Amino acid sequence: MNFIENIREGLRSIAGNRLRTILTSLIIAIGITSLVGILTAIDGIQSSVDSSFAGLGANTFSIVARQDAFRRGGRVQKQDAPIDYFDATQFKRRFQYGATISVSSVVTGAAQAKFGSKKTNPNIQLTGGDDTYLAVKGFTLQSGRNLTPNDLTYALNVAIIGSEVANTLFEGKLNPLNQVIRVSGTQYKIVGLLAKKGGFSGGGDDRMILIPLNNARALAGTQKLSFDITTSVPSVSDQDEAVDEARGVMRQVRHDQLGQPDSFDVERADELAKETANITGYLRMGGFGIGFITLLGASIALLNIMLVSVTERTREIGIRKSLGATPKRIREQFLIEAIVICILGGLGGVLLGLGIGNLISGVVSQGKGGFVVPWTWMGLGILVCVSVGLFAGIYPAVRASKLDPIEALRYE
Fold it and tell me: The domain containing residue 384 runs over which residues?
């Protein structure tokens, strides 16, 4: 009995026990689905995050207020004062680096917009910005126009709305441009509609309403706003020098004492992308661990089934040995059966994992990341299948090859 005949015999044995083969393959398929599905979902989410940062621009950095109190010398220092309008405008005037600078502030993240009898949920982000805000933040106008210096100077009641706000208020039946909506007790004329952005933020950018910065300041009243300064330098190669220059200018504006830490944070788009990549790296490790545990359970189930198969075919093994089959050929036959079953289950698991993983990443990223085909994880899945087949088939195969032919022929 040669190797080719062993393969044929293994396939005939698999075909003769279709129900057992299908159920065993399903066990392997579930394990591979969990492995490939989790890793594919993580890759899809990472792709969405990369797309979001690419839209923001790798040559962009932001100066924002420090959010938390910090510990220094064993003592918790008081929280730094927020960046006020004077700080922001002074920085914009002093920072001479050929950069595009946008000043903005979030008035509230729980505003509600109304148009006639229609109204949104109270989860609208009402933001005050200038005429460079959309370009620096990576937004695209679907229709209408951007804010103009005239809007900013005279604090005109105009607004640019996100796609989700437009869909909720106008339901695609009416052109939002030049319509008047009411937000936080004030009427605004819609002059622009933003293209859908979605992404890893969960669609928060699509629930935004942008108004002129001075309108936001007036609307806040006695509420103390904190302003964000976003700067876009001409090229990525200029960013390191620009960040150092911006930090120095902002320390002067904020009157930070020599030797004291910054009273603000500088957030670089590329640093946020790297931090996110590190997080997804840990998620991949966790996902691989979960998939490995699932596959370990599947391999134990396959081992049990192969042992049952050896017991059921004890008489057959005795006949083969009496006809001259060597222990090596017997081992090959059972190993081939185990590996073929694993590969069948693995192919099904890879396809299921590919679909489920992309479905999960699409839901999380609002379809921003696109369809991901992780060839590395698919190849890994098939390799793991072969390994599982070897692991689960080696002991039953060795046990079958060691059977005494005379005792095996007596087995009923």
Answer: 3-53+274-410
